[in-house]
Design brief:
This protein has about 375 residues and is an alpha/beta fold. It folds into two domains: about 1-130 and about 290-384, Isopropylmalate Dehydrogenase (3-Layer(aba) Sandwich), CATH 3.40.718; about 140-280, Isopropylmalate Dehydrogenase. The protein has eleven helices and twelve strands. Strands 2-1-3-12-11-4-5-10-8-9 form a ten-stranded mixed β-sheet, with helices on both faces. The model is unreliable at about 1-10 (pLDDT under 50).
């Protein structure tokens, strides 16, 4: 595309950017760790890297991308998942981490994936899972009569507590009398900080409403803590409207009236489920981006689709989720204009139907990446 062609009628949303810019380190290049992963991960990551390189060229960014080999092949060959010292290295020497996708049928228990993904998430205390749900073209939305102005929300999913902490066990395992216990864990600190992050984001990005989702009518202890914290923190932000919905009501509202939702904050499990529903509203998991953030610290960015091993090597994987995750990364490390150019390139390609087959187009993975990189490289200033 030419510079003129990148001026789509769709503008990047000024409110879709992850919370908290990272502190810039020293005077040298900003280092980005790249973990392509398994399956289609290396394919979509390669296209995202093309786009990051194009943004660096166009906006004169001093970036150093460092590819790391930790995936299923590496694990099967060496037994190593996340090496000793990796977290300290990320924390001290990198501005961001970019991940492709993890999962390989040769590792049935997915130990390598859990050690790497959860290891980074928990080890770096990346307590905000930030998921934009933004529709770029009405043809991609499965809801009748809904357009780009109706589907534009962000979800703050608590990322380090809840049902995913692995507390529980089995009694009389494998017998007819087996008992399985799986515990949720919610701390005052963990609940309050994710709720506060959502309100601060709404204030800073000019969004009007924060909706908190729980099931406190049934889960009277942990989720009642969420409700109390939401009420208390909300009183500190009188300029922001508040809304409380049970998870079933929120799921229904996402389908019936997505335009009524702006910033949503919820626990780990509900956020996991609702954000995939949100991905469907914007056109599918191939478009879904995410940021795992601790504001002000080294954070991790990844598309939310799986590794899809059966599609690996076919050139059919949609790289847009990875590219939009790269835009979140660029924004987080202080390159807002470059991030806006990447998002605008994606919006323009979707508007024109220049997509992979899952979205009705006829382009391959690399063709989409090449198109987006060229669009970013030729972009005029698009920062708001």
């Amino acid at each position: 595309m030419t510079a003129e062609e990148t001026q789509s009628s769709i503008d990047p949303s000024p409110g879709v950017s992850p919370p908290g810019d990272v502190t810039l380190r020293g005077t040298g290049p900003q280092r980005i760790a790249v973990l392509p992963g398994d399956g289609i991960g290396p394919e979509v990551t390669a296209e995202a890297v093309k786009v990051i390189d194009a943004a660096a060229e166009r906006f004169d960014l001093d970036l150093e991308l460092v590819e790391l080999p930790w995936n299923a092949d590496h694990y099967l060959a060496t037994g190593e998942t996340l090496p000793d010292g990796a977290l300290d290295d990320f924390r001290d020497n990198y501005s961001a981490i970019f991940i492709g996708a993890y999962g390989d049928p040769r590792v049935p228990d997915m130990k390598h994936a859990a050690d790497i993904l959860l290891g980074i998430r928990f080890g770096l205390d990346l307590y905000v899972n930030f998921r934009p749900v933004k529709l770029y073209h009405e043809s991609l939305c499965p809801l009748k009569g809904k357009g780009v102005d109706d589907v534009d929300m962000v979800v703050f999913r608590e990322n380090t507590e809840g049902a995913y902490v692995g507390i529980g066990g089995n009694f009389k395992k494998g017998t007819a009398d087996e008992v399985a216990v799986q515990e949720e864990m919610h701390t005052r600190k963990g609940v309050e900080r994710i709720i506060r992050a959502a309100f601060e984001y709404a204030r800073d990005k000019g969004r009007s409403t924060v909706t908190m989702c729980d099931k406190s009518n049934v889960m009277r202890y942990g989720h009642e803590l969420w409700l109390r914290c939401f009420d208390e923190v909300g009183r500190e932000f009188p300029m922001i409207e508040t809304q409380h919905l049970y998870v079933d009501a929120l799921a229904m509202q996402m389908v019936r009236r997505p335009e009524s939702l702006d910033v949503v904050v919820t626990n780990n499990m509900f956020g996991d489920i609702l954000t995939d529903l949100g991905a469907a509203l914007q056109g599918g998991l191939g478009l879904a981006a995410s940021a795992n953030v601790h504001p002000g610290r080294t954070s991790m960015f990844e598309p939310v689709h799986g590794s899809a091993p059966k599609y690996a090597g076919l050139g059919r994987a949609n790289p847009v989720g990875a590219v939009l995750s790269a835009a979140l990364l660029l924004d987080n490390i202080g390159h807002n204009e470059a991030a806006a150019a990447v998002e605008l390139a994606v919006a323009t390609s979707l508007e024109r139907g220049a997509t992979t087959r899952d979205l009705g187009g006829d382009l391959g993975t690399s063709e989409v990446g090449n198109l987006l990189a060229a669009s970013v490289r030729d972009a005029r200033s698009v920062a708001k």
